[in-house]
Amino acid sequence: MLKKILLRTIAILAILITLASIFVPAYMHEKRCGTHISPPYRASAEAQALYNRLDFPADLHCDALLWDGNLLKRHDYGHVDIPRMLEAHIGLQVFSMVNKVPAGLNFKSNTDDSDQLIKLFMVEHPLKPRTWFSPAGRVLEQSRTLHRFARKSEGKFRLILSREDLADYLQDRANGQELTAGMLSIEGAQALEGKIENLQRFYDAGVRMIGLTHFFDNRLGGSAHGAERGGLTDFGREVVQAMEEKHIIVDLAHASPALVSDVLDIATRPVVVSHAGVKGTCDNQRNLSDEQLLRIAENGGLVGIAMFEVADCGKDYTATAKAIRYAVDKMGLEHVALGSDFDGAISCHTDVTGFPLLVEALLAEGFSESEIQAIMGGNVRDFLLRAL
Ligand SMILES: [Zn+2]
Questions:
Q1: CA 48 to ligand 1 centroid distance, Å
Q2: pTM confidence score
Q3: Which end of the chain is more exposed for a tag (fewer CB within 10 A), N or C?
């Protein structure tokens, strides 16, 4: 009798945990990642036609892997999945892996002594305890997930790991194949857990870009939202040099001004700032100053302009286009790209299928078709063909 009750309790618990692992992340994803403008999106005929002519729309940052949804399915919430990428004929989306987020997250000052992802990963991955407390474990799990989607996509979604992969993929797209692609990145190198050998593990898992810091200072250096906001540490220097050797792109989004400056002092390869705004149109702690924009241009780097209210001080693409105009005027056209921050626990202006509205706003800012080609993804393609 007792055994029967025990078995029944275990069965009920297993069902509850399974249901929670399916519905809780989806519920949180829908709640946290809304849009200011609801789909379907209607751009002007001119903007839509120009968008349809773009050969490589690309975006340098999304956090879609955090929510453990099935990216092979089209969702009516959140911002990115593979069907919507195909619909928007996206050339490349960088998928960044969030791996530790402090409780009470804010833009001013955070420490690393709390972690609000523990509960999320316990619910998402009840049978994978390596993801519960370990930023490295979370990165390895999320990268495995994206590889699995690529395998199950019937050849429609590729993971780009090398310059050759990218060249082959471009060729196949040019030949008319219906294809889209992703590249793996990490949001915050606290995922290394202080061990340089984890860099090789991440490289082997397909990671080709790493943001050095996220919302708190870590062992590499300061965050723009950290408590100390210092520069590059000795360990940080070691990691940056090892990344350059492996052709893993250094991402300075969320870096403290001191860290940005220190990395640019030693960088021998171009860096990116995958998702940021500019102080020139939206002055806050996370956005880039004119001096930083100039130094990144000098380094040959690329800035992905983010598309949400805190980054561009607006609720539609007019604000994004103004930030892009400002960055292009300061840095030169070839240094500016898109870095939406889709699915980053924020409301974005639209989901990925709303990009024609951004083209409309860029036209209103006076950009020409060839300039829009470059900003909307041509620059990312050219950068990666050099940097990978
Ligand atoms: Zn971010």
A1: 29
A2: 0.94
A3: N
